[in-house]
Specification:
The radius of gyration is 18 Å and the shape is globular. Helix 1 packs across helix 4 and helix 5 packs antiparallel against helix 7. The protein has one domain. With about 140 residues, it is mainly alpha-helical.
């Protein structure tokens, strides 16, 4: 009985690990390519003014966009390729935890009868407000 439970748990763990790798590795590779291409400075220049509201550098747009369209694991993979302070990591994480996987969750929301536009706007607005608050707190308390 114990051996069966261990074997079942091990197989489920492997399946979960492979599922996560299918998301994390391509996202990680894409971000490394973007980071070393002319696209990264362009994105930083375009989004730096907006990222200041969150006390974040311009390059923080990459993990934010990744999180909105994929999931938290993709965001973690992206943040691993960039250099953020703990306050910046916390700000990005809080925003992505609120507004992650928007396309998938919008489809689910539609299936259960929610107003997709309202649901999506609510999550994005709450992520922005949370990002501003956490970014401000990170700026106040970082020494």
């Amino acid at each position: 009985m114990l051996i069966t439970a261990i074997r079942t748990g091990f197989i489920k763990a492997l399946k979960t690990a492979f599922t996560l790798l299918k998301v994390v590795l391509p996202v990680y590779a894409a971000v490394v390519v973007i980071r070393h291409s002319p696209v990264m400075p362009f994105l930083e220049d375009v989004f730096s003014p907006a990222m200041r509201f969150f006390n974040l550098p311009g390059e923080a747009i990459i993990p934010l966009i990744t999180g909105v369209f994929t999931d938290e694991y993709g965001t973690i993979a992206v943040m691993n390729t960039l250099s953020f302070t703990s306050a910046e990591i916390t700000t990005v994480a809080m925003m992505v935890l609120i507004a992650h996987t928007i396309p998938v969750e919008a489809a689910i929301a539609q299936k259960i009868g929610l107003n997709v536009a309202r649901f999506t706007v609510y999550r994005i607005v709450m992520a922005i407000l949370t990002g501003m608050l956490v970014g401000w707190l990170g700026g106040v308390f970082s020494w």
